[in-house]
Amino acid sequence: MTHLHFYFHEMYSGPNATGLVVAVPPGKNSSIDTFGALIVIDDMLREGPERSSKLIGRAQGLSAQASLDGTALLTAINFVFTEGEYNGSTVVILGKTVSSALTIEHTIVGGSGRFRMARGYTVSKVISWGGGCFLMEFDAYIIHH
User: Fold this and answer.
1) Cα 85–88–94 angle (5° rounding)?
2) Distance between CA atoms of 140 and 83, rounded to whole angstroms?
3) What is the C-alpha to C-alpha distance for residues 9 and 137, in angstroms, rounded to an integer?
4) Which PANTHER family has this protein been placed in (predicted)?
5) 78-104 confidence digits (pLDDT tens)
6) Judging by beta carbons within 10 Å of its beta carbon (0-12, 13-18, 19+), is residue 30 exposed, middle or buried?
């Protein structure tokens, strides 16, 4: 088993946004909590919580608002590692993200490179949210070949 610890940095507003609402049902507000909203991300994975910490990869994927009350997203993300011993490898996560939860668990459903045929889970917790930025701390527990 491999344990990875990293930070997920998202900028959801401004000219350099890395997370965007790209579609909502006709006649609805463009908001992450609108039922049917589709959000696409290309967020930064860093060694530490500081924006200046080493970039180790990207979180690329999408979320769809899957609850009528706007509280739960279906999330599918590829963690694409671009530095170090896992450079070129990916880990794929899938699961429910409850927007109000401070701690979130997702299933690892696959991977590539060093993480080919990966299984396991991630545990993430919100560190900060506001000012157009979103920061989460991730621990990934990966079983692979």
Assistant:
1) 105
2) 17
3) 9
4) NUCLEOPORIN-RELATED
5) 999 999 999 999 999 999 999 888 899
6) exposed
